[in-house]
Each structure stands twice: as C-alpha cells, then as structure tokens.
C-alpha cells in the first residue's frame, strides 16, 4: 500500500512540475492568420517587375512581404485585398515602411507591365506587380499551392483564383497565410508581431 501511495504522490508532483515548467515557457504570440512557419512550399519566386528586372524574395530581406495572386480585371477580391493591405500598412505607422506588398498576376496575357504598375501603385506607390510567362505563372502557383483557372464569359474571360495572402517575415521565411475574410486590423496585428 505505501508503494501505491508513493507512486500517486510522485505522479501528482510530476504533473504539478510539468504545469509549472509550461507556465514558465515563453509563449508564442497568437496569430490571426494561419501559422505556416516551417512550410515546405512558397519558399521563393523569380518574376519580372514592370521595369523588366528579375525579382526574388532576397530583394526584400529585412521587410515583411505580403504576396497575393490575382489579376487587374478582378471585380472584387483583388481590389479588396490590395485596399486592405494598404490600410494595414497605414495602421502600422512607421513600421509600415518595412512592409512590401507584391501582387502576382495570374493573367499575364492581359496584365502587361504597364497595366500592372498602374493598377498596383493606385493602391500604394510602393506596391509591386510581378509577372511571368504562362508557364512560369503556372509553376509558381503550384509551388504556393495556389489555384487559378480561366473562366469564359461570353467574348472574354475572367479568372477564378485563390484569395489568400502569403506573409514572409524580415528573414524571408514564409510565416503566415492570411484569409480574405480577415480585417486590416488583423493583418496589421500579425505584421506587427513579425516585425517586432
């Protein structure tokens, strides 16, 4: 009987110690978006900017990067996403200068470099539109686990596409995926944590 009691006391002491140690551990801040730290996808990109320069994630080291797939003729999702990103950047105050928003077109046939530049800078002068060939765009979307497809609409077409924003920390690591239904305040809060 004493052995049973001793085991019970030992088990209770172990549980209490485990609880104390857990309480002493630094807590990872809760993110509003989906924490994808350590993800094995979306690790880089290689696309052209409107001036024809090749851009990669390394160009933005030291900044938080928000990357979004879309197209300039999008009626609602894309303008909403870019307007929200501009608002989140503004909410960050001085920290906003360390945020780079990148808009990757899934419609390179219509989104010429000039169209991309005019579209993205209308939301914020620092926003950058990137493009590739049809094949490069398809390969990049696959690497990001993003989806898009051309949908005929009479004599023209529209594009169905993933409405997520991929967020990199200043060390160029993919950390968060933000959903389209989140607010600018939630975007800004997650960016503030990554930039701290």
TrEMBL record:
<keyword id="KW-0186">Copper</keyword>
<dbReference type="InterPro" id="IPR036249">
    <property type="entry name" value="Thioredoxin-like_sf"/>
</dbReference>
<dbReference type="Pfam" id="PF02630">
    <property type="entry name" value="SCO1-SenC"/>
</dbReference>
<feature type="domain" description="Thioredoxin">
    <location>
        <begin position="36"/>
        <end position="196"/>
    </location>
</feature>
<feature type="signal peptide">
    <location>
        <begin position="1"/>
        <end position="22"/>
    </location>
</feature>
<keyword id="KW-0732">Signal</keyword>
<dbReference type="InterPro" id="IPR013766">
    <property type="entry name" value="Thioredoxin_domain"/>
</dbReference>
<protein>
    <submittedName>
        <fullName>Photosynthetic protein synthase I</fullName>
    </submittedName>
</protein>
<comment type="similarity">
    <text>Belongs to the SCO1/2 family.</text>
</comment>
<dbReference type="InterPro" id="IPR003782">
    <property type="entry name" value="SCO1/SenC"/>
</dbReference>
